[in-house]
Amino acid sequence: MSGERKVGENFDADKASDIFDKLKNVEGKIKPKKEDGQLKKIADLMNEAKYLEGKGKLTEAIDLYKQVIFTLPDSIKAYEALANIYKKQGDIDSEKDILKKAIGNCSKNDEFKKRLDEIE
Fold it and tell me: Could you tell me the residue range of the domain that residue 91 belongs to?
């Protein structure tokens, strides 16, 4: 074996550095970065979706709310926002579908049940 270490083609320096940082975090040697958390990413998606909804870009907002639900299936706020958009659009079938999903995924689903009962 030679004393020099070769880097393979599949080596990604940024990814390796990120893994190294996470390992250091596990050992408690450095503080984790605040922006690295999954919840931060979800909060960013929610904020962007609210912004787009406010600008009337409902299709784009719907896509972002769905991403939030995919990542965090018990997100009450995302379900509420989606149901409200569908209601504004007059899309009763989609509103019912999202309320049914919310009932199945959220522990505090009494409001969703009540709202679904009012529609049906």
Answer: 37-119
For the chain, the domain total comes to 1
Structure confidence at residue 39 (pLDDT): 74
Residues in the chain: 120
Q: Give the residue among 65, 63, 75 at the shortest CA–CA distance from 102.
A: 75
Lowest mean pLDDT among 15-19, 74-78, 80-84: 15-19
Please state, in angstroms and rounded to a whole number, the distance separating the CA atoms of residues 92 and 106.
20
Find the Cα–Cα–Cα–Cα dihedral 40, 109, 78, 98, rounded to 10°. Answer: 140
33 has a pLDDT exceeding 80: no
Query: Quick check: 69 and 52 in contact, CB under 8 A?
Result: no
Tokens coding 90: 């007059």
